[in-house]
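Readers outside the structure-tokenisation community will struggle with the description of the input data as it stands. Showing the layout once, in full, would remove most of the difficulty. For illustration, here is how one protein appears when written out as sequence plus structure tokens:
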Amino acid sequence: MLADVTAPGTRHSVAALRRLLDLLARGAPAEEFARPAAEAREAGVRGGELAAINDATDVALRIRRTVSQHRRREAQLTALFDTASDLAALRDLDAVLRAIVHRAKLLLGTDVTYLSLNDEVAGDTYMRVTDGSVAAAFQQVRLGMGEGLGGLVAQTARPYATGDYQRDTRFNHTTTIDSAVLDEGLRAILGVPLRVGARIIGVLYAADRAPREFAAEEVALLSSLADHAAIAIDGARLLEETRAALVDLNSASETIRTHSGQMRRAEEAHDQLTDLVLRGGGADDVAAAIADILDGGILIHDADGAELARARAESLAPLTPAVASSRASGRAVPLDGTWVCAVLAGPELLGSIALTGRADLADVDRLLFERAAVVTALLLLLRRSVAEAEDRVRGELLGDLLIGSGDPGALSARARRLGVDLARRHCVFVADSETTDRHRLLAVAARSAQAGNGLAGLHQGHVVLVAPTDTPGPSARKLAAELGQALGSPVTVGAAGPAAGPAGLPTAHAEACRCLSALRVLGHTGHGGATDDLGFVGVLLGERADLGGYVRATLGAVLDYDAERGTDLVGTLDAYFAEGASLTRTKTALHVHVNTVVQRLERVGRLLGPDWNSPSRTLEIQLALRLHALTRGPDLSPTSAD
């Protein structure tokens, strides 16, 4: 029966929902989204209708945050591409630097941005461009190497950030610098180096007049803008060298033609690659374009060494020493006939490019190769932004599936939009590594899940995968081997399933977690398996297992005796079986006299019955001891032995 839309509660619910949609449509501030619910309460709406309005408000706020994040990332990438386009056109240097500083101010949302250049003759660094500055003394300040935040960045070639400069004792405070900063009213400052090859030529800054913390993504963004500023300055230097060559009348004509040709070729190549990325080209397209420009083979790898694309080249593992050398020097370096250039966003390594078939590389082609790495950095930053957004969506869906939240039909529809067909039978895998950071494990597991049309994410402190398969045991063993090989450290994987549809996934996840715990306790770290692979232990760990009941039925009398008297007969039994039922080895393991062991075992016999040491009973007792180790809590640990 259709709801009565004329009922007062229903009318208020519909009005509140329309109001929330209107707020989303016009991009209203977050605080306005609480008003529809407040107005509904004032109108007397209670119960389920009010709860529905509150739920709708939460959903609207999440949508607003997601849209805002996408808009911010789009604005950042657009600014980076605009900067690359300005650089390709190579307009007046001051105009390019002013544009970069202004874009940095807009993107980071700071009060002031500025850029300083090193003076090699004076041995200090001076202010070149500012945006948002109001103090004349600040606009003319000079910093000695190592002085203040900027002097330290210029000296160490590393980014530095402070939430409150005046109170930060890491920096060498001087009267001149502190007075200028105080006149400008700055508190929070971020500075990143401008590199030309291995040489630091200046510093790009973003600063606020109120304390704040700078996120890692803001450091990477400002570093990318600094790379473009350095290219603009380096391009101006090349033009200046061309003009200086005119002094020598005998070589002026040839010098002009050479430099003009190089600059024209560099502009055309930069325009071509930038346009390719702007039009949505992928790694394969960029690799093919660079290969055509440099007439060689190109391979692109990510920071973990995985091949992203190659063109006109055979597959080649990353040349790690060359990547490290290029990262340190900021230049392309040769190794065994192959040129390698690190792909960087400031100090962060995003990947590498390798050029084959060009053992002898002229300076102009080396410069083109290095600038291709800058464009590749933009591409990889874009890929990472898209991947992070997709990973969040996949992680949210995985979490809803594993806790059974939401309508199964809606969950299946969300999964289909991500290329996952929940109509197929899926298994759940829980992975863990004792020696590897779980976020690094998640990154490798996510690639495996996407390759198999599955999902991966963090849930309840573990890396969890949901993948379409009917064989949880073999698939877990294969996954443990693949993840362990990729990470270079053991990975243990517990599996359960298959589950038919979303409704069965929470139960399968709980069983997979129990299986992972069993694998660890049974000494199978670094392997994968399902409960069926654990024999009788696996049966007990299954969906309807009663571990506590089995342990109580087998060892209850001994457990109660230990609990009442503070003894450790359970520990004696464990040591007895661990030492192959040898009284001599047991007394050595427990550091007691053999008669003490005999007395304890006689007590066990009185508690468990005279046949406790028969083959059939010992199997059950040993199994119960193992399961007790899996399930016992701290309150069950005895404090002494009798």
User: Anything to note?
Assistant: The two ends are 72 Å apart (CA to CA). The first helix runs from residue 8 to 25. The chain is about 55% helix and 15% strand.
